[in-house]
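Sequence, structure tokens reproduced for absentees:
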Amino acid sequence: MNGLKLFMAGHRNTKYFRYAVMTCAEPVPSGGDLRGAIQELSRRISKWAHKAQKKYGIKTLFRGIEFTRRTATERGMADRYEPDTILYHVHANVIYWPTRNIDKQWPEFLTYTHGFMDAEWKDNGKVEKVEEIVKYCSKPTDTLAASDDELVWLYEATRRLKICQPLGDFKAWLKELEKLGEKVVRVHVGHGDGRLRRVLKRGRKPPELVDEWLEKKKAEQEASDVVTNAVTEKDAARADIAPKIPRETPPSNIVLGLTLPQWRHTPWAEPLIMVQRYDPSRPFGEGSADIEAWKARARQDWDDNFGPEPEEALRVAKMALDAATSSDDIREAAEAAPYIVHTCRPTVPTGGNAEEEVPPEELDDNLREVVSLFEGGTVVRLAPRPTEEDDEIPFEAPAVVAWREKLRAQIDASAVVLLARRAA
């Protein structure tokens, strides 16, 4: 699909490419000769392509086989088969290119094609979307509906068959890519966008440019110099062995993408940038701009969610990486880091009159449906907040603040002692 897209993007006559569907005359019952039907349709299309080019100047570029799965009843053929008989109907998606204006010959061409195929066929107009042409040979729902024996039969019937077959100019274009050791891939160009490009396969070197004039002079010089050298059998054997080409070092710092926030390196969830073959000594490629944007967005989200200062988070993360303290100390250090949990109220309601349970009959249908998702869950109505809370919003009790300050001081002291031990 990528190759066809890039081939069409670089072809000056892409707007004339057309798409047709050619079918077999009869469906194939499950367990029948599906392989023969596919081969017969492929050969018929190949013959049609040869004659269409010779007679009308039409080049065929691609053929893709598909088959649909329906019962005899669903196909309206219950008079010929048992109603529950599974029938497979084989058809092919074909891309063809009229290389000249055949407006006057168009009706003749349609009649000729219909007679040659001896079955239903349909011209679907210009190629608009490659994904509608190059796709699965069987729909996933049909495959899932098939029985075990039916799947084995499908495997044997399609084994080693060319389901997607490039033809004509497209086939020659792909052969040129293979000769040059290239392939078509979608390359990341930043901001989540991608672009199809021809790239060298791993371990392959680009072909060297050949100067025909120099090669001709070199051949003439070699022909004029008649030099006989005594070559031993051992040397001759070595001369037949081509020198090994050292493999190129694969590129480093390839940005793969950005993950969702996760708890991996710190007690706080944060997104991770995935980099393949990370090497801090080498620069990043085209994705470096995205990395800076991702880092800025992550810091903004960190601050918007009331995260601690990055220095405090890095200190706790360093404790975890060094494994100098227990997991309980690390967790307590994270809890002691100054940050605010955003809630709808500044304090937690306490007391018997702080809240009251709402009877189910007072809930509307939408809320009742949500509550039903939580087994044993109830809905409570919070009491109005006292007016004195508007004067001061104590997020933490003084005793809690003092305990956290004391714990932070103990952790700092432990870190100083650990650094002194390492220095010694």
DSSP finds 13 helices and twelve strands in the chain. The mean pLDDT is 79.
